[in-house]
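pasting for the record
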Amino acid sequence: MLNDHPLVFLPTQSRQKLFWLFTLLSFVCYVVFMFLDQPARTSAAPSGIVSFELAGTVENVRAMLASWGGEAMLNVSFGLGFDFLFMPFYSIALSLGILLASNRRPGKTWARFGNLIGWGVFAAVIFDATENISLFALLSGQTATFLPPLAAGCASIKFGLLIIGTLYGLGGWLFPHKP
C-alpha cells in the first residue's frame, strides 16, 4: 500500500488540472487566514495563530489568551474550525504536486521517496486535526498541562512533513531529469 502514491488512482490526464484546482482553493483559504490572523498578532503572540500552535506551555497560552481581545478570540476560534476545510485542500494539492514531481525524474528511489512523502502529507492532516482539537480545548478554558506540548508537537511534525513535501515537489520541478 505504501509502495504506491495515495493519489495514483487519479487519471493521469486529470492530475495537473486537479493540482491547480486544489492549489487555488488552498490559496483562497490561506488569504482568509491572513485576514483572520491579524487581530491575533500581539506582543505575546507575534505570529498570531502560529504562535498559539507552538506555545508549548500553559503559561505561554495564558499570556496569549490574555493579550487577545474578543475579535482575536473569535477569529482564532473560527480559524481553527475553518482549518478543517483547508486540510483536504492543502493535502490534496501538495500530494498531487509530489506525484507530478515524482514523474519528472527517473529512478525507483526518487519515486518511492515521493510515494512516502505523498502519504506523509496526509499524515500531516492527522497531526493538524489533533493540534486543532487541543487548541480548541485550550480556548474553551481547559488547563491540562499536556495540551500545549501536544499541540506544539503536532504542529511541529505537521510543518516538518509539509516542508519536506514542498521541497520534494519544488525539487522535482526545478531540477527535472534531463535525458
